[in-house]
Amino acid sequence: FYYALQGLLRDGSPERVGGDYWDDRDPAKPETRFCFSGDPVRSEYWSAENTNGTGTRMAPHDVRYQMNLGPFTLRAGEPQEVAFAVLWTRGSDRLDSVSRLRAAASHVRSVAPALLAPSVQPGDPAPEGPDPPLGLSQTYPNPAADETVFQFSLPMEATVRLEIVDLMGRTVLVVQDGRLAAGPYRVPVDVSRLSPGVFFYRFHLDHRVFTRRMVVAR
């Protein structure tokens, strides 16, 4: 496992593109840190489905996977917050599942900044006013169990769409959609029918879109 954590073969030698993780040491092939390199959608070397580029499959065997993070350099007593995502998809076949997984990974990367934004805990004071650049405050409370409150302020009349979406970007609730006059707004929203988990709310202000995170927890 020590070598595997570094993306190396069992004897410490580098894995090569087109290898099957176990025995390919051809120095003419470029090195890689992926135990199964290539692209399955393009029928390149990949995993047990195509170990040599000609469609050869591995015989049935024990399969284990591990996920590693780091390395991290920490001072004594220093805390470190580590965030990671585990995604899975299921398509019409194995290659379609890979394509769907790539789309899901791309979406998560796009919303990661909002996903990692700090939450307002139930014991924290409620926000005093909107964030001027967005015109939108963090929902309160966040996490929420049954109801959360959206607060925003419009400097002038504008078209506003405020919606809650899940991690896959699917709209689960539309809070507001239409023209609103200038001024402050405080909108309580019932989230009791949403399943516990992480969501995002999108604030469409004319042609601009802002995204922030919210959590439903019970």
Tell me about this structure.
This protein is an alpha+beta fold and 218 residues long. The protein has a domain at 147-216: Sandwich (Immunoglobulin-like). It is built from two helices and eight strands, in the order αββαββββββ. The strands form three sheets. The chain has a four-stranded antiparallel beta sheet with strand order 5-4-7-8, with helices on one face. The two termini are 39 Å apart.
Count the helices. How many?
Answer: 2
Indicate the multimeric state. single chain
CATH class of the domain at 147-216: Mainly Beta
Question: How much is the average pLDDT?
Answer: 76
> SSE string, helix = H, strand = E?
HEEHEEEEEE
Helix share bin: 10-25%
Low-confidence stretches: 120-133
Structural class: alpha+beta
Gyration radius over CA: 24 Å
Throw out a few tags for this protein.
218 residues; alpha+beta; Immunoglobulin-like; 4-stranded antiparallel beta sheet; two-stranded antiparallel ribbon; 12% helix; 26% strand; elongated
Quick rundown:
The protein has helices at residues 2-5, 94-115; strands at 15-16, 31-32, 147-154, 158-165, 171-180, 183-190, 197-205, 208-216.
Task: Give me the secondary-structure topology.
Blueprint: H1 2-5, E1 15-16, E2 31-32, H2 94-115, E3 147-154, E4 158-165, E5 171-180, E6 183-190, E7 197-205, E8 208-216
Antiparallel strand pairs: 1-2, 3-6, 4-5, 4-7, 7-8
